[in-house]
Write a structure and sequence with these properties.
Blueprint: H1 16-53, H2 57-71, H3 75-86, H4 94-107
Helix pairs in contact: 1-2, 1-3, 2-3, 2-4
Length: 124
């Protein structure tokens, strides 16, 4: 009999200890899946910020983190909002847009040849 990590295995029934352990493993598995999805969304949002504002990926992460902290919105949710804006699904909220612009401005080098390089929030 061959087993695979994708095939559910049945634990021998040894009472409440195994049931509690199985429940703990299921919770941990769900948390890890959520973390992987959240990480992918943050990476996509970083790509949007890098392209739209010509900033380094590390700077983009600092921007997302700062917007998250200043708006009290979870980082992965801010990332989803940026992705939705970039795909034209919905505009950024005024609060997120303001915080995002301020965070980018604080980290962007000033270039006198470039007047206003901030993309229009309504159309990526």
């Amino acid at each position: 009999m061959t087993t695979s990590s994708r095939v559910p295995r049945h634990l021998p029934d040894e009472g409440p200890r195994n049931a509690a352990e199985a429940a703990c493993l299921k919770r941990e598995n769900a948390q890890l899946r959520h973390a992987v999805v959240s990480h992918a969304k943050v990476d996509q949002a970083l790509g949007v910020l890098v392209a739209a504002h010509r900033i380094a990926p590390d700077t983009g992460f600092e921007v997302l983190r700062e917007v998250s902290q200043h708006t009290n919105i979870k980082l992965h949710t801010v990332a989803e909002m940026v992705i939705d804006w970039a795909l034209g699904r919905r505009p950024l909220s005024q609060t997120v847009e303001r915080e995002l612009d301020q965070a980018v401005r604080r980290r962007s080098p000033r270039d006198d040849a470039r007047q206003d390089d901030t993309p229009d929030r309504q159309h990526p």
